[in-house]
Automatic annotation (TrEMBL):
One of its GO terms (cellular component) is cytosol. HAMAP family: ProB. Its main location: cytoplasm. Keywords: Amino-acid biosynthesis, ATP-binding, Cytoplasm, Kinase, Nucleotide-binding, Proline biosynthesis, Transferase. The lineage of its organism: Bacteria, Pseudomonadati, Pseudomonadota, Gammaproteobacteria, Alteromonadales. Its EC number is 2.7.2.11. Substrate binds at residues 52, 135, 147. Pathway: Amino-acid biosynthesis; L-proline biosynthesis; L-glutamate 5-semialdehyde from L-glutamate: step 1/2. The gene is proB. This is Glutamate 5-kinase. Belongs to the glutamate 5-kinase family. ATP binds at residues 12, 167-168, 210-216. InterPro entries: AceGlu_kinase-like_sf, Asp/Glu/Uridylate_kinase, G5K_ProB, Glu/AcGlu_kinase, Glu_5kinase, Glu_5kinase/COase_Synthase, Glutamate_5-kinase_CS, PUA-like_sf. PANTHER family: GLUTAMATE 5-KINASE, ISOPENTENYL PHOSPHATE KINASE.
Length: 369
């Protein structure tokens, strides 16, 4: 690494750093992170902080409650969020702002753009955005689920240069360092493939956070495909942050794509979830990314799920091959009605007047998956 010349960086901090003993917030590990943020800002680098920890910070207020109860966890998040923000705010002599998101906010294109504009406006006014998932209202359908992946989505929305994911170990090892003394740290990852995911293992087992090394690799893949330098570092040691500021790599550095995805394609691929499916014949051969090719109702043999105009859908063959994710210009109800018409002339005239079934402006090719 050379001396960092970041214009904008996203720092992700997990629950274990916020509330290591689940007895409220502790500044013990946060001081060095806060100092790193202060020094970045002094160097002219804008910083966005993605901070987990609301549930862990609020859990001590519910000593006699069953912590696996969803309603209780949401209450913990509501109580702990204010304590967490107050703890961060005490560590800075400049203003901060709270941004609470659900996946529904990120996968809706209009709201996604609004999030970007809000972050830009805060940073332009020297205010530190502190982002967290809105655990008080999320459901299985609405949640991202872990703040590693959330941080990558925020980094893409904010058009950051770098994403720094804080972990409890130095980075990605070729095997679990807690179980193998001969585990070796990977200081550089050029390509994220199945071998890299195999090294990451499964989810966290410490009971504090919701992620693990695997979610950090997922986040890294999202970020590097957007052209964002990504690091997994040990967030429990001040040395990690000093090394970063000195242009040194303290953990695992993931190389960004030489040719990043276009912004709208990245959003469609890595942020927007398909709300339903449109199924075509196995011999369907049109290239849906090509302006000369299109998808017509006569080629559709099935519609799955319920979706509205503007929702993201998956177009796949009936043999299971995924073709594209795209913005639908039709609701599932209307598309079902048109596709079932025996009169092909009616369907073609309708589509000619109404427009294409999927939007060419928002389409991501999935055939290589």
């Amino acid at each position: 690494m050379s001396h960092p010349n970041w214009k904008r960086v996203v720092v992700k901090v997990g629950s274990a750093l916020i509330s290591p003993n689940q007895q409220g917030c502790s500044s013990h590990y946060l001081l060095s992170i806060a100092q790193f943020i202060v020094r970045c800002r002094a160097n002219g680098t804008q910083v966005v902080l993605v901070s987990s920890g609301s549930v862990a910070a609020g859990s001590h207020m519910f000593p006699d409650q069953e912590k696996t109860d969803i309603a209780v966890k949401k209450a913990m998040a509501a109580a702990g969020q204010t304590e967490m923000i107050a703890t961060w705010d005490r560590l800075f002599d400049f203003p901060s702002a709270q941004i609470l998101l659900t996946h529904a906010d990120l996968r809706d294109r209009e709201r996604y753009v609004s999030i970007r504009e809000t972050i830009d406006s805060l940073l332009d006014n020297n205010i530190l955005p502190i982002v967290n998932e809105n655990d008080t209202v999320t459901t299985d359908k609405l949640k991202v689920g872990d703040n590693d992946n959330l941080s990558a989505m925020v980094a893409a929305a904010a058009d950051a240069d770098s994403l720094i994911i804080c972990s409890d170990i130095d980075g990605l090892y070729d095997k679990n360092p807690h179980e193998h003394d001969d585990a070796k740290l990977l200081s550089w990852v050029e390509e994220i493939d199945e071998k890299i995911y195999a090294m990451a293992g499964g989810a966290a087992e410490d009971g504090v956070g919701t992620g693990g090394m695997r979610t950090k690799i997922e986040a890294a893949e999202k970020a590097v495909s957007h052209g964002i330098d990504t690091f997994i570092i040990n967030g429990f040691t001040e040395l990690s942050f000093n090394m970063l500021l000195d242009g040194k790599n303290p953990g695992t550095h993931f190389q960004p794509y030489d040719k990043p995805m276009k912004e709208n394609i990245h959003w469609m691929t890595h942020t927007s979830n398909a709300q339903g499916e449109v199924i075509v014949e196995s011999d369907f051969s049109a290239s849906l990314e090509d302006e000369t090719d299109s998808l017509t109702s006569s080629e559709i043999i099935g519609v799955k799920g319920e979706f509205s105009v503007g929702d993201t859908i998956l177009v796949r063959k009936d043999d299971g091959t995924k073709l594209v994710k795209a913005k639908s210009n039709y609701s599932s109800c209307l598309l079902n009605f048109i596709a079932k018409q025996d009169n092909e002339e009616f369907a073609s005239e309708f589509e000619e007047k109404t427009g294409p079934i999927i939007s060419k402006q928002h389409i991501a090719n999935l055939e290589k998956e």
